[in-house]
Amino acid sequence: MPTPESPALARRTTIFGNRALRILWIAAAPFLLPVSAQPERPRTFANPLNLEYRFMIDQPSRREAADPAIVLFGDDYYLFASKSGGYWHSRDLVDWKFVTSAGLPIEAYAPAVMVLDNALYYTACNIGLYKSTDPKSGKWEFVSQTFNVGDPDLFADDDGRVYLYYGLSYNGAISGMELDPKNHFKPIGEPFLCFRANFAQHGWERRGDDNLGAATGNLFQEGPWLEGSWMTKHAGTYYLQYAAPGTEFRTYSDGVYTAPTPRGPFTYAPSSPFSFKPSGFITGAGHSGTFADKEGRYWHIATMVISMKHQFERRLGLFPAGFDADGVLHMNTLFGDYPQVAPHDRKGDSVDTSAGWMLLSYGKKAQASSSLDTFGPEKAFDEDIKSYWSARTPNAGEWLSVDLGKTCRLEAVQVNFAEHESTTLGRSPELYHQYRLDASLDGKEWQPLADRSANRRDVPHDYVQLSAPASARYVRLTNVRVPGGGPFSVRDLRIFGSGEGKPPAAAPSFEVHRDVSDPRNAVVRWQMSRDAAGYIVRYGVAPGKLYQNYEVRGQKELAIHGLNAETDYYFTVDAFNDSGRTQGTQTQAAAHPGRK
Fold it and tell me: How far apart, in whole angstroms, are the C-alpha atoms of residue 449 and residue 94?
C-alpha cells in the first residue's frame, strides 16, 4: 500500500477551498475503493460511552458504572458514577480524563453533585457532604453529615436555596427536604412527600423486562424500585425525575413530575417515561441526570443495562434531551446506540443528533480463528450486548471477521469487548486492548482500516470514526493484546455506514389494539416488507409528540405493557434497512378505554 507521501496517494488528494482531504484507500487491485471525496464530517460518538469502566473489587470479575451525574463547573464537565473509584472531567463531553481522589468516599452508590458559590458539592448514599473548588486535583474537604438518605439529589435553586431529594425503596416514594447552606446544610423543617409509586396506573413502573412483573427469589412482584431522583428547573417549572422499575431490567426508565415550586405540588407528566430505551444493542435509560451544555442545550446521561455476570453490571449512555413548545421534557433514543453527532456539533435545540449512518453488520455471515463452544462468531453480530463471541485463547492473531454481503460504504466501527473468564479486580494501568481492523473487497486482499496495536488506553467499547468513508464488503478484527486473563472475546463488532441502496419504499400499514381490561397494555401489528430490515414503533401523547420508541427486527407485532392507563396515545411505524429509514405517514390513536 502506498505511503502517505507516495505519488499514488497524492494523485487522489482533493482540495476543498483551502482544505486538502485525503482519500482513505489507495492500493493495487483488488483494492478497497475510495468513496467520493467530501468535506470534513462532524465528529461522532456511540453509546455505550467508551469509558474505562472499573472492574469491581469483588467476584465475579465484571465492570460497572451506573447512577450517573454530570455537572458543568467552570469550563469543564464533571461525570460521577457509582462504584467507579473516581470521576471524570471533559471539555467537550466526548474525551474524558479520569481523576482519582483519596479524600472522597467514592465507593458509595448514587453520587449527587451541585454547583454553589463557586464550589462543587458531592454526596452519595449515606456518606455526608463534601466540597471542592478544584475537583481536577482530586482534593475535597468534608462539610457535614446532617442527612443520611438513599439515592440523593442536590438541587441549588436560582434564589440560593438548596434542596435534597431522595428515595430508594420497593414500591416506595420520592421525598424532599430543604437544607440550610449557611448552617452546615442542616435540614430546615420537616421532610416533604413528593409522590409515591403507582404501577397500577403507570404500566412502565411494573417490574420486568416487559413490564409484566418479575420474580425476586421465590416471590413474584409487580411493584418497582422507586429511586434515582433528579431535579431540573426550566422556564420557571420544576421537573422532578425518578427511575423505575429496577436497574437490571431493559425497561429501566425515568419518569417525571412537574411543580410550580421545589416543594410541589407535583403533577405526573403523562408523557412519562421520558427517558426510555427498551430495545437495541444495549437497553435501559434509568437513574439519570439532565443537564445543559455550554450552549444551553440539554442532555441526559443514563444508566444502561447488561446484568449478566451480576445484577449491577451496567454502562452509561448520553442522549440529547429538550423541552418542547408545551414544556414537555423529552429525550431521543431512536437508534440511540448508533453513531451520534458529538455535542459541540449539535445543531440548535433539535434532539435529533443522528449521524445518519445505519448498521451494516447485523446477522451477517461471520467467521473466526477459533471459538469456544456456545460462544460462536454469530453472537458478535446479533445486536445483543448480553451475548458474545469468544476465541479459545488470548493469543495475538486470533481474529473475527464478517461478510457484509455486498460492497458498502463504511463510516465507523464500534468494537465492544467482552470479559470472558476475566480474573481482573479493580483498576490497573495494564487494562488495555490492542488490535487491528482490516477491510477487503473480496475477502482475500486486506487493507488496514484502523491500527490500535500501540494503544495504551482502556477501551471496552472502542469507537472508531474513519477519517474518510471507505468501500468494503469484508471487515476483520485481529487481536494483538488482551488484558484481564481471559481469551479474546467480543460482545459485538458493529459496522456503520450505508448499504448504498435505497431506504424502504414505504412505511408499513399497521393497526393498534389497546387492552380494554388493562389499558396499560397494547399490541401493534404491521405488514412486513421485503426491503425492510426492521421497524421502529413510535408513540406518544399527541401526533407531534411521539417521543417513545421500540426498535424491532424479524417481527410483525409488538406487545407494549408500559402505557399509562388513563392516557390517550398515538402510534406510527417506520421501516428501515441498511440504507436509511422511511418514516410512517399514518398516525393511529389508541384512547384509554374510559374515554367517551
Answer: 22
Contacts of 239 (CB under 8 A, 6+ apart): 231, 232, 233, 256, 257, 258, 290, 329
Which DSSP category does 7 fall into?
H
User: Is 71 exposed, middle or buried (CB count within 10 Å of its CB: 0-12, 13-18, 19+)?
Assistant: buried
Backbone angles phi, psi at 392, to 5 degrees: -80, -20
| pLDDT band of 528, cuts 50, 70, 90 | very high
Q: Which helix (H) or strand (E) holds 10?
A: helix 7-10
Contacts for 208 with CB less than 8 Å, ≥ 6 apart = 214, 245, 249, 251
Contact 276, 202 (CB under 8 A): no
Grid cell locating 126: 449515606
Q: Tell me the C-alpha distance between 508 and 363, whole Å.
A: 22
With cut-offs at 50, 70 and 90, classify the pLDDT of residue 596: low
The answer to whether 320 and 299 have CB atoms below 8 angstroms apart is yes
Model pTM?
0.93
With H, G, I as helix, E, B as strand and everything else as coil, classify residue 511: strand
Closest CA to 483 of 459, 451, 452, 463: 459
What's 549's DSSP letter? E
Burial of 146 (0-12, 13-18, 19+ CB in 10 A): middle
Distance CA 85, CA 54 (A): 7
CA-to-CA dists, residue 315 to 44, 71, 84, 338, angstroms: 19, 19, 11, 15
Q: What is the pLDDT of residue 107?
A: 87
pLDDT tens digit string along 324-369?
A: 999 999 999 999 999 999 999 998 889 999 999 999 999 999 999 9
In order of 109, 143, 184, 321, 326, the CA distances from 146 in angstroms are 18, 9, 8, 34, 39
CA distances from 41 to 341, 411, 466, 500 (A): 10, 10, 10, 18
Q: What is the DSSP letter of 34?
A: B
pLDDT value, residue 460: 97
Q: Beta 489-498 vs 534-540: how paired, if at all?
A: unpaired
CA-closest candidate to residue 320, choices 345, 287, 356: 345
- 324: its cell numbers: 418542547
Contact criterion met (CB below 8 Å) for 317 and 85:
no
Q: How far apart are CA 41 and CA 356, in angstroms?
A: 12
DSSP code at position 135: G
- 3-class SS at 377? helix
DSSP letter (8 states) at residue 53: P
Vertex 69 angle, CA 95 and 190, to 5°: 165
- Supply the pLDDT for residue 102: 78
Nearest to 428 by CA among 454, 457, 455: 457
In whole angstroms, how far apart are CA 523 and each of 222, 317, 512, 513? 20, 28, 6, 5
CA atoms within 13 A on the CB side of 38: 11
Mean pLDDT of the chain, nearest integer: 92
558 by DSSP, 3-state: which? strand
Q: Is residue 22's pLDDT more than 50?
A: no
Nearest to 286 by CA among 307, 310, 263, 265: 307
Instruction: Answer yes or no: is pLDDT of 381 > 90.
Output: yes
Cβ(141)–Cβ(117) under 8 Å? Answer: no
